[in-house]
Amino acid sequence: MDYRKKLIVKPGAKIRLKDIDPAWHGKHETEAEAAQDLAENVAKLTHLQYLLYAEKKHALLIVVQGIDAAGKDGTCWHVITAMNPQGTTVTGFKQPTEEDLAHDFLWRVHPHVPGLGQVAVFNRSHYEDVLVVRVHNLVPESEWSKRYKEINQFEKLLARKGTTILKFFLYISAGEQLERFRQRLDDPNRQWKISESDYKERAYWNDYLKAYEAMLEQCSTEYAPWYVIPSNHKWFRNLAVSQIIAATLEELKMKLPPPTVDLAQIRKAYHAAAKDPAESKSKARG
Amino acid sequence: MDYRKKLIVKPGAKIRLKDIDPAWHGKHETEAEAAQDLAENVAKLTHLQYLLYAEKKHALLIVVQGIDAAGKDGTCWHVITAMNPQGTTVTGFKQPTEEDLAHDFLWRVHPHVPGLGQVAVFNRSHYEDVLVVRVHNLVPESEWSKRYKEINQFEKLLARKGTTILKFFLYISAGEQLERFRQRLDDPNRQWKISESDYKERAYWNDYLKAYEAMLEQCSTEYAPWYVIPSNHKWFRNLAVSQIIAATLEELKMKLPPPTVDLAQIRKAYHAAAKDPAESKSKARG
Q1: Most B CBs within 10 Å, among A55, A56, A186, A191, to test the B interface
Q2: A118: distance to nearest CA of chain B, Å?
Q3: CB contacts, 8 Å: B76 with chain A
Q4: Which of A30, A117, A133, B243 measures 20 to 30 Å from B60, CA to CA?
Q5: Residue ranges of domains in chain B, CATH in brackets
Q6: Is the ipTM of this complex over 0.90?
Q7: In chain A, how long is the greatest CA-to-CA distance?
Q8: Nearest chain A alpha carbon to B263
Q9: What does the pLDDT look like over B81-96, one tens digit per residue?
């Protein structure tokens, strides 16, 4: 099943997150039922990244956003392990440094975009500058309100160079977030990373929803669409994200480049080498 | 089984690669027999990287070197997929650019070393500057001969900051390399990346062995040891590398940091939130 149509934010359309069910899980009822589709998607991703790397005509930028505990880390891990690390990067964008803040908000992001043949995953991104920054008034509205257009222009520049851009908003319910926080509280492996801000931020839930809606409405474009991924079920989140990436890359019709050398010639050289007694000796050892 | 003792290059010791069997495969006879040990190593790596990331007192630098087709890409992929991409990087060092060459040979490497809490894998490294550079006389001996000491000093600096450094030389026989080249020739998926230099470099096999021996003898130190990994069998290569990394990290006795907040307090706040009708409503939806 192709989840793109169902989950895309149509460019220019209005969106109300409250009308979207974060527990939706498509055609499968359980994780076990989805396992085979997921494995197929992962195998496709492996192959498609190899083609992208070999062909060097396209780049892929994947942006992952979502509220705390929405599963950003897990999604990045899931996507990236399908791919050869040679040619892929994951960049996490945390609180900007003083040096970052002395520059325009896209300055710290630009060096990490993928070149042709490469895949880059952003765990958080330049969108933080219209999310947390907006919710907490870290800059005045006269500043953040201009950023939507600047983001679109920036992404257009990347697209024009051959970058396919896919943006995933991982959407969970407030109840699911609470449940995940509680699991962290009871998990000795994760207690160290609990902070007070985790639950203080919950007071801003509706403000965040508004900021997400503005981001989705203003920055879902033909060349860099947003997808809203119902993420209460982790398995469905992984299934949908991997399916959307694979289906999008398949449409690029990428091909392996032809050999750059005369294969018949080289085959002969190998046969000669294989008959060389010095070679046979080392082969016997191996 | 702990392969460290068997495979380490003892600091200060002489080494003759011809005395080492690249087809050695330890206590297991087949890949199937080794599968469970390998899975256990991978699970350990996942957990240990998590500890390293959480504790932020240590860094881990893994250097992978080896002749063409020795399995550098495969090894990097294998190691890194065991770990959360948040906090890990893989850097491949190819031919230096003009800008690289306008600087000292460690300049392009330094920005990619891991910080505390991070893991960095180098697919090729600063050692290329005493390998291919030496074999092909890209700089005079008076230059490359000074680099061994400079490398040791550089690695000492990293170690003093808290970096554990593990260096793996993947060792295959000439016969195994020939066999892998031949497999590439017959694999339509890989024909595009065959180059004439693949087999032209084979003429320098013994020069490379000499350069590898010099590197192993001069740069295996207490704080940054080299391991020679018999790599004719890919499964043994992965088993040995993952075992050595896991065993080394285990000795760091890393611990999760204590919670920074009062968990009892937060637990109460969660209970209150869970009883809030607004929360229950959104929970029901999830």
Answers
A1: A191
A2: 13
A3: 85-86
A4: A117
A5: 3-261 (3.40.50.300)
A6: no
A7: 77
A8: A185
A9: 999 998 999 999 999 9
